[in-house]
Each structure stands twice: as structure tokens, then as C-alpha cells.
Write a structure and sequence with these properties.
This protein is of the alpha/beta class and about 450 residues long. Helix 4 packs across helix 16, helix 8 crosses helix 9 and helix 8 (about 205-215) crosses helix 15. Strands 3, 5, 6, 9, 10, 19 and 20 form a seven-stranded mixed sheet that branches. Strands 13-12-11-16-17-18 form a six-stranded parallel sheet, with helices on both faces. It folds into two domains: about 1-205 and about 365-445, Medium-chain alcohol dehydrogenases, catalytic domain (Quinone Oxidoreductase, Chain A, domain 1), CATH 3.90.180.10; about 220-360, Rossmann fold (3-Layer(aba) Sandwich). It has 19 helices and 20 strands. The structure holds NADP nicotinamide-adenine-dinucleotide phosphate.
């Protein structure tokens, strides 16, 4: 890999990069099948990804005709790597076993180790014989929608494909590594004004927030819509706030510290609720929710923007869903993509049907949506929300930081890139967009 890195750093041509040999093994962050029981009896919050994630040398898989090898310069932590590393709610080896039964190419994924990671930026090293739009030397970011495009069900909205998977979570050979194998239809051009780590942190969360809010497959937000955003400085929320502001909407951000309140104000979000300071207790006990507390949140939102939110951007799940359905405006939409605090959800259905509200489910993004979201990063209209950068050796610590909710925005990980700040090809455009805007989360951390 060092020869490849030297060529990339020396600005080698695509032909030169294409002529380099693909190494037989590479460095990768893995979890191991024989360790899935290691946290038995330990509460979720105490499970430490430092113990389950290993950085080790793994064999390079064979390349399928519709795939590309990419030298990964940088990657990022997503919450799905937290789930994989604590083996909850299921060990991800179950996904790999299922994929292994699908085809001979799928069988490559069923291994005793799982290379994790669902984001990345880097350089294409080699493409399979069926790849037409990409070539060695192309600088790319990678989105995580892994779809078999020979399946008819993948040809309306590919997120509806029967065998849709998330790369590096439900497939092997993920992005937290020096090399990855991806389908050609996961590739997107790297925004030229960003560093490798700034370019690597966006695709998963930015595309998810785009689909949830902007796409017709999500809440299809319009000008003037008010949007309640849980975790508004988190991975999803940091992009969601930007989409609402860009689209002429009114964001109400919910966060859990005074620091995060300041960050949201700097981002341009005026209406902010500090949920920790407010001390909401939506659940009286494990079985009973408190409508009075839902009402208090609703009153706080009205106090800030004078109305109920037409859209609620939901992902904490069990802890907040009852409140989200309650505070959503008559005829409004709760759009949900996750359940960090628990997936067995409870809400009062009377508030949903009597006020004609909808709950809309959303999951990552199809290629078109991911491409459009990447384009908005590339043209400087959406900013990366990178706040901290770790070397690959410290991927366990980076994952623990997200698990413990000690972060803002995205945690970047340097893979092949030897240091931060490399990879900017268009400094003039960077200056035009504004260093302050691009590095807001980084400076704040
Ligand atoms: P993140 O960076 O950890 O941010 C989530 C934020 O939510 C936290 O920073 C926290 O903010 C807030 N939060 C956490 N628990 C909460 C609770 N009990 N009540 C209220 N707020 C709470 O994670 P993320 O990347 O945004 O992802 C969030 C969830 O979405 C994860 O479960 C992830 O797996 C899922 N996800 C799903 C998709 C998909 O395609 N379906 C894509 C991306 C992520 P404060 O403490 O500041 O309030």
C-alpha cells in the first residue's frame, strides 16, 4: 500500500496508478466472529469498542466485474459501527452469512472477520471488466447503498430493492481500512475543495438526511416548513439543520449541552432547545409515558417559533417517539430512520389519527439521492461537519466516543492519508466557500 500512497501523493496519472500491483493483503478495522459473545452480561453502555475492534492485516478479495478497488485515504465513524462493535441488536455476521448464500461473489463476504465502515474517500485503483464510468486514478467518495442492479426490484427506488444492503455493515470489506472493494454504483466524485477526511465524513449521514427531508421519498420539505430536529449537532442532525436552512425552512434544534447550543447558533439555527437543561422525562418509568412532558416540549417549541413543527426529524426512537408524534403539527409528518434508544416504540395513536399526522419511514438513500447530496457538498452549499480526526489505529476509541455521545458532528478516521489537511485540489473554490464555514464543527470541538 505504501507504493500506492507514494504514487497518489506524487500526483501519478490514472495510467500509472492503474499499472500498480494490487496488494495481496491490507490493513483493516475488523470485528471477529469468535468474539461475538465477549460482552455477554455487560450493559450496552459499558460495552467498549476498543475491545472488539481490531486493526489487522486481511486478505484482499477477488474483484467482481461490476466492482472497483479503492485506496481509502480517509473514512469516518457511523453509528452502525457502534452497533457492529457491541454486537447489538444482532451480530452482523448474520448479514454476511445470508449474503454468502446469494451468489459466488456474495460468498466472498462470509468470513470469520468483518471489515467495518460505511464511509470513505480515496482513489480508484482498478475497475472490473463491466465498469464503464470510472477508471484508475479517479478521486472518489463512496456511498453505502449496496444493490444488485440485476434485480428488477432495484429499478424504481433502489432502497426498495429486495437485496439492498449497507456496505461495511451488512456487507464485508468496509471503509475503515486502507483498501476497499465496492460496487461501481457506489462511487461519486470527491468534492475537489475538501481534504480527504472532510470528503470522507459526509456520504452516509448527509445522504440519509437529504432523503428524510428533501426527497419526495421522505418528508419533501418546502419553503417555510418548521422542522424539529433531534440530535441537531449529531451526524444526521448537523446536515438536517443545513437542509432546513437552505430550503427556506425554520429549524428547531434539540441538543444536550450549552456548547452544542452555541454551535447551532453559529450554524444559523436560532431556535434551540437544550433537552438536558430542560430535563424532559418523557417516560415516568419503563412502561409509562408522561403526556404532561410531551405538552411541555410542545409549549417550548411554540415559545420559540410560534407554531407546532410540520416535520419532526426522528431517530432517537423509544425515548422520544411518543413526544415526536404528540408535538408534530396537525397534518404533519414524523420522518424516522432509526431508534438509537430502543426500537420497540410507543406513542398515543389518538394524537396521530385525530390530527391526521403521518409517520414516514426512511433508510439511507438511493444512488440518485446520494449523488444529489454529494453534489451539494461539492458545490459548497452543504458543509462537512467533521469535528475530530483519529488515526486508523484508534478506530476503537473513535467508535467509543460516538457510543458515549461525547462528540459533535462526525468523527473522521485517517486510513492511507498520513496526516490531516491533504487532498485539496481546488483551493480557490475552498476560499470562495469559506474556511470558517467548512471547518465550523472542527474549530468548535
Ligand atoms: P449521532 O452522531 O450519535 O447523533 C445522534 C444524536 O441524537 C446524539 O448526538 C444526541 O444528541 C441525540 N440523541 C441520542 N440519544 C438521544 C435520546 N435518547 N433522546 C434525545 N436525543 C438523543 O448519530 P447519527 O449518526 O446522527 O445517527 C443517529 C441514529 O440514526 C443512529 O441510531 C444511527 O444508527 C441511525 N442512522 C440510520 C440511518 C439510516 O439510513 N437508516 C443513517 C444514519 C444513521 P444530543 O445529546 O445533543 O441531544
Amino acid at each position: 500500500m505504501q507504493e500506492i500512497l507514494a504514487a497518489i501523493q506524487a500526483g501519478a496519472s490514472g495510467a500509472e496508478i492503474g499499472a500498480l500491483p494490487i496488494p495481496e493483503s491490507y490493513r483493516a478495522a475488523t470485528v471477529r466472529k469468535d468474539e461475538v459473545g465477549m460482552f455477554e452480561g455487560i450493559p450496552s453502555g459499558d460495552k467498549d469498542p476498543n475491545k472488539s475492534i481490531h486493526v489487522e492485516e486481511v486478505a484482499t478479495p477477488e474483484l467482481a466485474p461490476d466492482e472497483a478497488y479503492v485506496a481509502v485515504m480517509a473514512s469516518a465513524i457511523n453509528f452502525n459501527t457502534v452497533w457492529t462493535s457491541i454486537f447489538e441488536p444482532l451480530p452482523t455476521f448474520m448479514f454476511l452469512e445470508r449474503l454468502g448464500k446469494e451468489s459466488s461473489w456474495g460468498a466472498r463476504h462470509n468470513l470469520p472477520y468483518h471489515v467495518v465502515g460505511s464511509d470513505g474517500s480515496g482513489v480508484v485503483l482498478k475497475v472490473g471488466s463491466a465498469v464503464r464510468n470510472w477508471k484508475p486514478g479517479d478521486k472518489v467518495t463512496i456511498h453505502c447503498n449496496h444493490v444488485d442492479d440485476q434485480d428488477p426490484s432495484a429499478h424504481d427506488d433502489s432502497m426498495q430493492a429486495a437485496n439492498q444492503r449497507i456496505w461495511g455493515f451488512e456487507t464485508n470489506f468496509g471503509g475503515l481500512a486502507d483498501l476497499t472493494v465496492v460496487k461501481a454504483n457506489q462511487l461519486m466524485p470527491k468534492p475537489a475543495h475538501l481534504t480527504w477526511e472532510e470528503a470522507a465524513c459526509n456520504a452516509l449521514c448527509n445522504s440519509t438526511s437529504y432523503r428524510m427531508l428533501v426527497s419526495k421519498n421522505g418528508a419533501a420539505m418546502k419553503q417555510g416548513d418548521s422542522v424539529l430536529i433531534w440530535g441537531a449537532t449529531g451526524g444526521l442532525g448537523g446536515y438536517a439543520v443545513q437542509y432546513v436552512l437552505n430550503g427556506g425552512g425554520i429549524p428547531v434544534g434539540v441538543v444536550s449541552s450549552a456548547d452544542k447550543v452555541d454551535l447551532l447558533h453559529e450554524l444559523g439555527c436560532d431556535a434551540v432547545i437544550d433537552r438536558k437543561a430542560a430535563g424532559y422525562q418523557f417516560w415516568k418509568d419503563e412502561h409509562t409515558q408522561d403526556e404532561g412532558e410531551w405538552r411541555r416540549l410542545g409549549k417550548d417549541i411554540r415559545g420559540l417559533i410560534g407554531e407546532d413543527p410540520g416535520i419532526v426529524f426522528e431517530h432517537p426512537g423509544r425515548q422520544t417517539m411518543g413526544a415526536s408524534v404528540f408535538v408534530c403539527a396537525r397534518g404533519g409528518t414524523v420522518v424516522t430512520c432509526a431508534a438509537t434508544s430502543g426500537y420497540m416504540i410507543e406513542y398515543d395513536n389518538r394524537h396521530l389519527w385525530m390530527k391526521l399526522k403521518s409517520i414516514k419511514s426512511s433508510h439511507f438513500a438511493n444512488y440518485r439521492e446520494a449523488w444529489d447530496a454529494n453534489r451539494l457538498i461539492a458545490n459548497g452549499m452543504i458543509q462537512p461537519i467533521l469535528s475530530k480526526v483519529f488515526p486508523l489505529e484508534q478506530v476503537g476509541e473513535a467508535t467509543l466516543t460516538v457510543h458515549k455521545n461525547l462528540h459533535e458532528g462526525k468523527m473522521g478516521v485517517l486510513c492511507l492519508a498520513p496526516s490531516e489537511g491533504l487532498g485539496i485540489d481546488n483551493p480557490e473554490f475552498r476560499e470562495k466557500v469559506g474556511e470558517d464555514k467548512i471547518t465550523l464543527f472542527r474549530r468548535h470541538a
